[in-house]
Amino acid sequence: MAIRHYLQFSDLTAGEYAWLFERAAIIKRKFKAYEKYHPLADRTLAMIFEKASTRTRVSFEAGMYQMGGSVVHLTTGDSQLGRAEPIEDSAKVIGRMVDLVMIRTFGQDKIERFAAHSRVPVINGLTNEFHPCQILADIFTFIEQRGSIAGKVVAWVGDGNNMANTWLQAADLLGFKVHLSTPRGYEVDQDVAGVRSRDSYKVFKDPMDACRGADLVTTDVWTSMGYEAENEERRKAFADWCVDEDMMRVAKPDALFMHCLPAHRGEEVAAEVIDGPQSVVWDEAENRMHVQKALMEYLLLGKVTG
Ligand code: CP
Ligand code: NVA
């Protein structure tokens, strides 16, 4: 089997996503039933973190162990990556010793360069531009709660960041619509998102209008990792982009609320919303592990059954 990387959401087809969502449900059931499932016995995942993480690290690490494999954890500070060893050299070396690599880094170009020199699959664990594993978990969570996402409306309130870019790619591929509302100066860069169809998103000035009639309302931090120097400026610009109960009220009555976490109550989301009855953020976080187990299984073994 030719190696496949997962560097952005558009790297897989709609058919492959249908498969992954089915596998994730099966793998989740096994986990809940304490059923031993070790398809990745003797396989090793290297995880490279150039930015902080809680969910991504725990979900990949626990997930790999649960599937019988093992992990190696590297950071910029404790490896030669932080001492300017060329990324191409690191990719060649690491790929000779492990079966799979997950990277969380800054520019997408870095992960692309790593993948180009890796002889094992590389997974994007978040870059400045994309967060495909998170959207995989978010859509799986939506499907669990509400069925197919095709034809539905997802309201994105906030920064035109890595999460927003990835939602746009997913809408394009899986046939739903994103209603985008971002403050001026923080819009999604269409070229970065690489969206093919103009029908898959609509831009709204007022976040209330973006939320009107939505099946899912979602947001993210005002300041993503790597942009901390802009924190004060962003706090002012984003003041009206807090998902509150008024925004949830204009969405569909059964609309869900999601947030990739970590969250800041009182900034991008009101406590009443994230801790309220429409919020599915804890399922969403847990599902990172189940979908990534399905993804790792698929990249290493293809379409296995059982
Ligand atoms: N959502 C997410 O990726 O969380 P972490 O930054 O904790 O990994
Ligand atoms: N957009 C956020 C997501 C964190 C999981 C960031 O990049 O920091």
TrEMBL record:
Transmembrane segments: none
Known catalytic reactions: carbamoyl phosphate + L-ornithine = L-citrulline + phosphate + H(+)
Domain of life: Bacteria
Domain named Aspartate/ornithine carbamoyltransferase carbamoyl-P binding: residues: 4-144
SUPFAM superfamilies tied to this protein: Aspartate/ornithine carbamoyltransferase
GO BP of this protein: citrulline biosynthetic process; L-arginine biosynthetic process via ornithine
Sequence ranges assigned to domain Aspartate/ornithine carbamoyltransferase Asp/Orn-binding in this UniProt record: 151-299
An example molecular function term from Gene Ontology annotations: ornithine carbamoyltransferase activity
The entry's keywords: Cytoplasm, Transferase
Subcellular localization(s) per the UniProt record: Cytoplasm
EC assignment: 2.1.3.3
Coiled-coil ranges from the UniProt annotation: none
UniProt entry tagged with the keyword Chloroplast: no
Keyword match Cytoplasm: yes
GO CC, any one term: cytoplasm
Binding site for L-ornithine: N162, D220, S224, M225
Coarse class of the protein's main subcellular location: cytoplasm
NCBIfam families the UniProt entry points to: orni_carb_tr, PRK00779.1
Family as reported in the entry's similarity comment: Belongs to the aspartate/ornithine carbamoyltransferase superfamily. OTCase family.
Role according to the record: Reversibly catalyzes the transfer of the carbamoyl group from carbamoyl phosphate (CP) to the N(epsilon) atom of ornithine (ORN) to produce L-citrulline.
Name this polypeptide is given: Ornithine carbamoyltransferase
Lineage: Bacteria, Pseudomonadati, Pseudomonadota, Betaproteobacteria, Burkholderiales
Gene from which this protein is expressed: argF
